[in-house]
Amino acid sequence: MSIIRTSLGQFLHSSRQSLLSSLGASKPVNIVIGNQSADIDSFASSIIYAYYSPDPSPVPFLSIPRADLALRPEILHLCSLFSISPSDLLFTDDPPIASLPVSGTTLTIVDHNRLESDIRSHFPDDSTVRAVIDHHDDEGFYLSASPRIIEKSGSCTSLIANHFKSSFPTEGPVRGDLARLTLAAVLIDTTNMTNKVTQHDERALKFLEVQIQKSASEDGGDAPEKWDRKAFFDGVWGAKNNVDKLPLRDLLRKDWKEWVEIVDETGEEQKVGIASIPRELNWLKERERGDGFIDGVKAWAEERELDVACIMTTTGRGGEFRRELLVWELTNRANGCISAFTEKAKEAGLGLGEWQNGSLDVGSERRAWTQADLTASRKQVAPLLRESVRAGVGKNLSQV
Ligand SMILES: [Mn+2]
Q1: How many of the other CB atoms lie within 10 Å of CB of 221?
Q2: Helix (H) or strand (E) holding 205
Q3: Which controlled-vocabulary keywords does the entry list (predicted)?
Q4: What number is the average pLDDT over the span 142-168?
């Protein structure tokens, strides 16, 4: 079944139908999937990779259960902009990844370069992964994948757009939509080309804006809206940060990553998780009233069975941009993590400062800080925290 490419909405509808009919016939499938944050970059990367690929093209998947789409207002915003019906998207539980045939199925991974463990347990053979395009540190897997492009860039979509330049559609409204969907990721990942911009992003931006102009002039009499990069960016940014009504548990799990660390020779494991939230600690504390904030974080940490929980906040843009950090050792066996983290943060120059006279601090178990190094995002902080979980244990043992 070849896939229809008249519009993004039609493309995704047709992709889903094609996948479901293959599953119905127990035929192997080809899918392309982004990382479990399912942010705009992963969303757009999987769709544009699928769109550009020649038939039989892979079918794009979002690496979250369908219910979690409600936590991503920015994706719903893009769906409405491009007339994509959310019912046409594919999620890890719709259809369940475990229902995909193992034999003959191929995977393309974008916006990460190591298949996530849940999916890996269904597809244990690394040769299932046939292509990789990503902008994170190279973890060294799937060396015979083709293409295998892993380079630093603000957005993974920039690498994909540049790679597939020659297969970009040359006519029809889908050309403008595809370019705008790609630019939504490029602009969000680079804060409108002011942050983390590389030459890959510059090249992609230039190429995509030309496509938007060509697409607009082709429409002739029926003049479409003029391309306004800032207005477009503001619309997506506004949707992404429209989280005021989300309950605390949803804010915590919305942009959540967790890791299991092996902390000693006996194979003992500890679990650490980091939420990234686009609101200040004070906003969270005030909104929940009383101890609601702390109780809510604790309940979430218990639900996830964490030893160490962390919240990173980001607010504002440009000169107003700020970061804060809260780390909490929830179990006795995690004692020592915060003191190890404080040292590592100092060496790494995070510039941690006491948060509001220590009003969220509890002894050596819980600390909140302002973070002066605004460039250090979760990508940089997570490795320090994970090392601290491992180092904290050693320290604890040596004190005994
Ligand atoms: Mn990305």
Answers
A1: 4
A2: helix 199-218
A3: Hydrolase, Manganese, Metal-binding
A4: 96
Nearest-CA neighbor of 213 among 223, 201, 200?
223
Tokens coding 369: 């800080």
pLDDT single digits (tens) 365-376 = 999 999 999 999
Distance 64 CA to ligand 1 centre (A): 15
What lies within 8 Å, CB to CB, of 87 at 6+ separation is none
> What's the pTM?
0.80
Residue 25 confidence (pLDDT) above 60: yes
Of residues 85 and 168, the one with the higher pLDDT is 85
Query: Does the N-terminal peptide bond of residue 86 adopt cis geometry, omega within 30 degrees of 0?
Result: no
Place of tokens 């609601």: 292
Q: How far is the CA of 43 from the centre of ligand 1 (A)?
A: 10
Distances (CA, A) of 293 to 122, 288, 358: 37, 5, 16
- What secondary structure letter does DSSP report for 367? E
Q: Distances in Å between the alpha carbon of 364 and those of 20, 336, 348?
A: 53, 8, 21
**What is the 3-class SS of 216-264, one letter each residue?**
HHHCCCCCCCCCCHHHHHHHHHHHHCCCCCCCHHHHHHHCEEEEEEECC
At what angle are helices 337-348 and 378-399 packed, to 10 degrees?
Answer: 130
Tell me what the pLDDT averaged over the chain comes to. 92
Tell how far the Cα of 350 is from the centroid of ligand 1, in angstroms.
Answer: 22
Angle at CA of residue 16, ends 13 and 21, nearest 5°: 125
Backbone angles phi, psi at 386, to 5 degrees: -65, -40
Q: How far is the CA of 111 from the centre of ligand 1 (A)?
A: 5
Determine the distance separating the centroid of ligand 1 and the alpha carbon of 41, expressed in angstroms: 5
Compute CA distances 192 → 30, 69, 237, whole Å: 33, 24, 10
